[in-house]
Write a structure and sequence with these properties.
Blueprint (H helix, E strand, L loop, with lengths): L15 E7 L4 E4 L5 E3 L2 E5 L3 E4 L2 E6 L4 E2 L2 E2 L4 E18 L13 E6 L5 E4 L2 E3 L4 E18 L16 E3 L6 E5 L3 E8 L4 E5 L3 E3 L6 E9 L4 E8 L1
Antiparallel strand pairs: 1-6, 2-5, 3-4, 4-9, 6-9, 7-8, 9-13, 10-11, 10-13, 12-13, 14-15, 15-18, 16-17, 16-19, 19-20
Length: 231
């Protein structure tokens, strides 16, 4: 497969600017000794990472607002999900983009392909106005920053009337009620799989306290996603 860097474009004053384009059949390979800067978003993989097959990354100054909580005025958007990234992502920002969020409260926010926002406690460099976080097997379609005290809500998506999960919050187990459950998978907020089962009960007693995402699928491949709180 041929590898092309088709150009970085950042037009000041544009509300939504395309900063990277990969044509169909082309790819960009980032070696583990290198990094790629996308107009303030730097990808530094720990293993060679490839962006391929008709993808475009853009940046907008329109914040994400979820249930009254807002991001900063800088949001990166990939037309196709970037998946399997392991390494460090550094997010640069300007002081006038913060929407009154204190720098000390900033966290990174990533959006998965199925529409779930998760926050990551990044390392802040207030001198250089950057946030950095080391990811493992990350998938995201958007990335931005928000306040740790009012982060973008992890929303429940693609639910249906045939799946119920209880108790929630829980301390030791999750009961999944479904007539035709096929598989349940539990992820932590970093997107790492922590449990998987084809049974209607998950033992979560050994997991750390925090927020998790439960994905359930049935024999019709219907996906339901639940925000789970482990106490």
């Amino acid at each position: 497969m041929k590898k092309y860097l088709l150009g970085l474009l950042c037009l000041p004053g544009m509300m939504f600017s395309q900063i990277l384009t990969v044509s169909n059949g082309a790819s960009i390979s980032i070696e583990n000794t290198a990094s790629l800067n996308l107009s303030g978003l730097t990808l530094a993989p720990s293993d060679t990472y490839v962006i391929s097959d008709a993808n475009a990354i853009s940046v907008t100054d329109i914040p994400v607002v979820v249930e009254g909580n807002t991001s900063v005025d800088r949001v990166y958007d990939a037309s196709t999900a970037l998946s399997g990234f392991t390494g460090t992502i550094t997010f640069a920002y300007d002081d006038d983009e913060l929407n009154d969020i204190p720098e000390a409260d900033l966290v990174l926010e990533t959006l998965r392909a199925e529409g779930v926002w998760t926050n990551h406690p990044a390392i802040a460099d207030e001198t250089n106005n950057t946030l950095s976080y080391a990811f493992t097997d990350l998938e995201f379609t958007k990335i931005t920053a928000s306040s740790a005290n009012a982060s973008l809500t992890i929303v429940e998506i693609a639910t249906n009337d045939f799946v119920k999960v209880y108790p929630n919050p829980t301390t030791d187990k999750l009961i999944i009620v479904s007539k035709n459950l096929q598989k349940s998978t539990l992820y932590n907020v970093s997107g790492q799989k922590v449990l998987e089962s084809d049974r209607n009960e998950l033992n979560v007693s050994e997991l750390p306290t925090g927020v998790y995402l439960l994905h359930t699928t049935n024999k019709q491949n219907q996906l339901s996603t639940f925000k789970i709180i482990k106490k």
